[in-house]
Amino acid sequence: MKNFTSVYDIDNLQEIIAKALKIKENPLENPTKGKGKTIGLVFLNSSLRTRLSSQIAAQNLGLNVLTLNAAQEAWNLEFADGTVMNSDTVEHIKDAIEVLNQYCDIIAVRCFAGMKNKADDVNESILSQFLKHAKVPVISLESATRHPLQSLADCITITENWTENRKPKVVLTWAPHIKPIAQAVGNSFTEWMQQMDVDFVIANPEGYDLDKNFTKDTKVIHNQDEALKDADFVYVKNWSSFEDYTAMPKVDENWMLSNEKLELTNNGKVMHCLPVRRNLELSDEVVDGENSIIYQQAKNRIFSAQAVFSEILDEINSKD
Amino acid sequence: MKNFTSVYDIDNLQEIIAKALKIKENPLENPTKGKGKTIGLVFLNSSLRTRLSSQIAAQNLGLNVLTLNAAQEAWNLEFADGTVMNSDTVEHIKDAIEVLNQYCDIIAVRCFAGMKNKADDVNESILSQFLKHAKVPVISLESATRHPLQSLADCITITENWTENRKPKVVLTWAPHIKPIAQAVGNSFTEWMQQMDVDFVIANPEGYDLDKNFTKDTKVIHNQDEALKDADFVYVKNWSSFEDYTAMPKVDENWMLSNEKLELTNNGKVMHCLPVRRNLELSDEVVDGENSIIYQQAKNRIFSAQAVFSEILDEINSKD
Amino acid sequence: MKNFTSVYDIDNLQEIIAKALKIKENPLENPTKGKGKTIGLVFLNSSLRTRLSSQIAAQNLGLNVLTLNAAQEAWNLEFADGTVMNSDTVEHIKDAIEVLNQYCDIIAVRCFAGMKNKADDVNESILSQFLKHAKVPVISLESATRHPLQSLADCITITENWTENRKPKVVLTWAPHIKPIAQAVGNSFTEWMQQMDVDFVIANPEGYDLDKNFTKDTKVIHNQDEALKDADFVYVKNWSSFEDYTAMPKVDENWMLSNEKLELTNNGKVMHCLPVRRNLELSDEVVDGENSIIYQQAKNRIFSAQAVFSEILDEINSKD
Asked: How many CB pairs below 8 A link B and C?
């Protein structure tokens, strides 16, 4: 694995899930694999789970960890190429990356969608700079359009929770929010589910269809109740309009997942990537209920990260 | 020791002081006690001594340390139960704690009094959430009403500085400030002194009496000069009114501790938890004077923390 | 080496450069030299390279690292002596340093020029407090008037890039900026070049002469083209007026280093300490061009720091 920014960087999804589950059994089985190597965790945005789980995963492998809260600790970054830097940006992202090349064996970066300019976000204006200028492996800690370490943790969690001898039905359902939220988690979960042996459908209101480049042939249903029917797993997540970018078209029905809605499912397990807006996206009773596997997902972020770091280290070590 | 949030979590105060002093002689005597374990240091408020001493103590024991500046690095937290999260809070404290449960073997948290609502502070609205939802031991790095690691360091410091064969007289004296400050340090020092073999009195102006639930039978004197007479230790600290919560009733006398005031004491040692407002709470000459043991207190924060972490680890390791 | 705040703390410049180059060959050759010792990295200002390279250097030597972003994580600091602290500063720098004395074996601090009061900056109002109150070695991570770890990295980089059997010509040239910038890098580079076996000249517009206490007998030329002629190394850096402190007198000529200007040199290598304002200080084509050794300089920050930390540790260990 050269970089890790989407499911398409994975050779064999079942193998990496199995690897992560083995790591979960004994997280310290390779405590020196990363010895003498440094991972730089660069945060251009807020982070709790990603920040902590990445640090734990790196420590479990013996990697040195450098954490950089770019905006608060370093300099205001310029992202546009060729610009005359005579305004309030102090350092070009290109130079910051070239310096990280000198200091790190792996660069991991969190860079949310800017939600200002659709083309910038669709084209991953920030992550693409890392991929262009990094001379070491790049790992996405969530980018404008994807959140792959979350999605791998989601696949691990579904695998752990499915023992029946048939394909589970997995529903990704939109939920309400008060602010325009990026499509990254929805897009990414969709791509990973397309590679899993599951029946996958997406439920969202009219006007909220995800980018066709991610949904492809996945069935999109505009009626939540219909979609939830017989679901074995329900993944809840808000996103704003992709077509009318960042808009929040009015939704008349109540899309918040409640216990009542959950009764439509096949005793479905409830998933969310967190942070969750309680009683807006999900009711308290669902988050705290027996069907919630939300915190298990959070825990699996460690093993998702550790499996990926481990594969990247294998690649690096094979060249040493 | 299951949790550590007040003196009442200590079985035997003299024993833990002795343990801390032994650690001070050789801080690295148990460098692998915390191996493979992780402590999460969660800061909801500013911190210098607590931040650094906790990290050193944890490193001395071989613990992995995760530091989270919650407000700046993660998400704006919601503390109210049952609320519809349709405003500016992004993650419920309950969910953050449940995630920390997945990532940490010990959770340590700093959560000051909000100084907005008396009942919230008295009831420890934030720390109580940690105690309710944490599935791992919780350590207070200062909460709304107490600062127990500071108080233990204070007990260690008094013990180190007392060799006479009689009880020392210890005075906690209020000092001026320009802003309403929480009672946590005053409350906490009071509780710990009540368990120490000392003569303890509190001096504060009228209107500034601490919560009776902390002072109990401790003598409270409203005349500073009278209280300071023959004091062996003088602990200086500001707090705002508890009764008229956060008010700062006018004080006519000058309560700043000066060398002149210090002459009333029995060559009393001067203590302060820091940060100190020089020439407002204490004069420069006192902070920098021969009687000041303020920096020794700061140093003992390491051994206070290390003794507590060590006891918590003993409990965890006994269950492994 | 007791402290490290300028070239004058170095006994033998050639020796420490040689030492750093040896470290570069094998950064992990002394992985336990700092064992059981703690370095506190105190940032009063932003930092990317200094922050990361110092952490790497410390880790390579087995030092424990405590990083403190003073303003964001701790308290608003007071720097004036004798002041009544009844305003918005919460902790005196003197007390913060005394506490760091208790916690650290080495204190490293970044404290930029305030650019408000010339005398404060010239007298190093902040660094001088560290040198006065610290009881452990102090390392400057850039102060009001100098950036010595950068300058040492610059000397290492020049040494690596010079194989001819004659003195190289090194030019420090001023470059345009939009804000008043401190003279620290310019001063510091000047002082170190004066100790190197090079022909050194400074080029800057009229009104931008550096402090004579730093330039001494170094030739200062007000015509960039003339200065660049036959240069083997061109160090580009902006600074504001020292004489009319923080002023930015109008400059009619274009001082931005472009490929056209570079043709005046002897195929000169281009240096900059970063962050760089692209197309303002240097053109994109120069930063990204073949003559740029800017990222090599950034890499050498690790070995500059590691050589200095190593010497300081030798001194500490010799006293243990």
From this structure: 82
CATH code 3.50.50.60 for C7-146+301-319: no
Residue A320: what pLDDT? Answer: 76
ipTM value:
0.95
Closest C-alpha to B293, from B177, B166, B156, B195 = B156
Q: What is the pLDDT of residues A15-37, one digit of tens each?
A: 999 999 999 999 999 999 999 99
Into which CATH architecture does domain B7-145+301-319 fall? 3-Layer(aba) Sandwich (3.40)
The rounded mean pLDDT for chain A is 97
Asked if A187 contacts A210 with a C-beta cutoff of 8 angstroms, the reply is: yes
Nearest CA in chain A to C298: A99
Q: Residues of CATH 3.40.50.1370 domain(s) within chain A?
A: 7-146+300-319, 162-292
pLDDT at res. C71: 84
Q: What is the pLDDT of residues B165-191, one digit of tens each?
A: 999 999 999 999 999 999 999 999 999
Residue ranges of alpha helices (H) inside chain A are 13-25, 49-60, 70-73, 93-103, 118-122, 127-133, 148-160, 184-195, 212-215, 224-228, 259-262, 284-287, 294-319
Residues of each domain in chain B carrying CATH 3.40.50.1370: 7-145+301-319, 162-292
C141 labelled as ligand-binding?
A: no
Return the sign of the alpha-carbon dihedral for residues B132, B134, B140, B143: negative
Cβ-based neighbours of B118, under 8 Å, separated by 6 or more: B245, B246
Angle between helical axes of A148-160 and A49-60 (0-180°, round to 10): 80
pLDDT at position A319 is: 87
The residues, any chain, with a CB within 8 Å of residue C253's CB and separated by 6 or more, are C205, C224
Place of tokens 């694999």: A33
At C8 the pLDDT is 98
CA distance C266 to C166: 13
The architecture (CATH level 2) of B162-292 comes to 3-Layer(aba) Sandwich (3.40)
Per-residue pLDDT averaged across B41-45, rounded? 96
Whether B320 shows a pLDDT value over 80: the answer reads no
CA distance A42 to chain C (A): 11
Secondary structure class of B187 (helix, strand, coil): helix
Q: How far apart are CA A247 and CA A114, in angstroms?
A: 14
Domain with CATH 3.40.50.1370 in chain C: 7-146+301-319, 162-292
What digits encode the pLDDT tens for the residues A100-141?
A: 999 999 999 999 999 999 999 999 999 999 999 999 999 999
- Residues in Cβ contact with C216 at an 8 Å cutoff, skipping those fewer than 6 apart: C194
Q: Which CATH architecture has domain A7-146+300-319?
A: 3-Layer(aba) Sandwich (3.40)
Q: Which amino acid is at B159?
A: T
C95 to chain B, any CB pair closer than 8 A? The answer is: yes
CA distance C317 to A262: 65
DSSP-based three-state secondary structure for A299: helix
Contacts of A178 in chain B (CB under 8 A): 86-87
Residue C99: both structure tokens together: 């506490």
DSSP-assigned beta bridge partners for residue A270 = A234, A292
Asked if C66 has any chain B CB less than 8 Å from its own CB, the reply is yes
Chain B residues with beta carbon closer than 8 angstroms to that of C84: 278-280
Q: Is A284's Cβ below 8 Å from some Cβ in B?
A: yes
Angstroms from B301 CA to nearest CA on chain C: 10
Task: Give the mean pLDDT of B301-308.
Answer: 98
Q: Report cis status (omega within 30 of 0) of the bond before B176.
A: no
Interface membership of C71 toward A (CB under 8 Å)? no
| Residue B39 CA: distances (Å) to CA of A113, A181, B43, B55, C193 | 32, 32, 13, 9, 47
